[in-house]
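Study both lines:
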Amino acid sequence: MTLPLPHTGRVPALTSRRATWLVAGLSMFQPLSTDLYLPTLPGIAASFDATAADVQWTLSAFIGAFGIWQLVVGPVSDRYGRRPAILLGALTFLAASLLCMAATSVSALVFGRILQAIGACTCLVGTRGMVRDLYAPVEGARLLAGAATLMSLAPLIGPLVGARLYEAFGWRSSFAALAMFALIILVTSAVTLRETQRSPTRALAVGPILATYRSVAASGAFRAYTMAASASYAGLFAFLSGSSFVLIRVLGLTATQFALSFSTMVAGYLIGTLICRRLINRGLQLTIQAGAVLQLGSGIALAAAALAELHVAPAIVVPMFFFGISHGLIQPAAQSGAVAPFKHAAGAAAALLGFLMMACAAAVGIWIGASYDGTVYPLTLTIAACSVVSAAVAFTLVHRHGDVSRHD
C-alpha cells in the first residue's frame, strides 16, 4: 500500500514490508531501553551503593515519563505529522543515552532515563499514528504483529548483549550500545520515512486537545481494548522490573543465566506474535480472549509454584514463557482495536492508550520495588493478579464493546 506525499504529489514506496521493518525498528526503542540494561541493575545498585528500590526508579521513572509524554506528543503528531515527531524522538533518545552513560549518581541516571523515555515515546506514538494512517484495523493489527515479531529480537537478544557488555566493560556500556542504535535508526528514518498524515489537525490549544481526549475516552471500544492492553503489560512489567533481583539475588543466577532466562519469556512473546498474525483473521476479540485464557493459566501456575514453596528458577521461567505467548496475542490486537475508531485522531488515541498502559506499569513497578523482601512472593503473586484482571476484561468489556469492524 502506498500513500501520496502531502503537498508534493510524489508517491513514496512505503510497501507493507518496508512499513513492517520501519515500525519494528522504531518500536525497539522502548524494549531495548529496559531489557538491555536489566542484567546490570544489581551492578548499578552496587556501583552507587544504592538499594533495590532506588535503582527501580530508573525503570519506574522511564515508564512514568513515557506515559505522561504521550499525552503531549500524540496531538503534536496529529498536527505536525509523524515524520517530524519520529526524527525528533530518535535524536532525543540518542542524546539521553549519552547522558545516562556519563551519569555519576542514581539521580543523574534517573534524569537521563526520563529523557530517554521522552525520545522513545515520541517515536512510538508517531509510529502508531503512521500505522493507523495507512491501514484498517485488522490490517493494522496484522502489521503490528509482524513488526512485533521482528521487534521481539530486541528483548530476545538485548539482555544477553547487555549481560556480556556488563561483564566485559561495566554497566555504562549498555547505554553506549543504546546510543549507537539510536544513531542508526535516526539516519535510517531520515532517509526512508515519508509523511503519512494527510489530514492534519489545525490547532494545539488546550481546549480542543482535552475535548479530543474526552471523545476518545468516551468510546467503549477504546476503554475495553486499553484495559486489556494495560492488564497484560502490567504483568509483563512486573517481571521486567523485579526478575533480575529475584532470579539473581534470591535464586542465585549469574547475569548471563538471567539473560537466558529472560530470553525464554521473550521467545514466548515472539511465538505469540506469529500465532497472532494467523489468528487475527478470526477477529480482534477472539484473539484477545485466547491470549487471556493462556495468560490466566500462566499466572495461576506462577502463584501455585510460589505458594507450594517451589522456589527454583524454572518455576518462574516456564510459566513466563507461556505468559510471553499470551502477551504476543493480546498486545497487537488490543493496540489496533483501541485506535480503530479514531482515524483522524489516531495520534491522540494512541497517546491516551499508551499513557494509561504506562501509568499502570509504573504503579506496578513502584510496588515491585517497594515490596521486594528477598523472596519470590511479591513478583509471582503480582503477575498472577494481573493475569486474573486480563482474563476478566477479555470476557466482559472486550466481548461487549470490542466490535470495531465498522471502522475499517
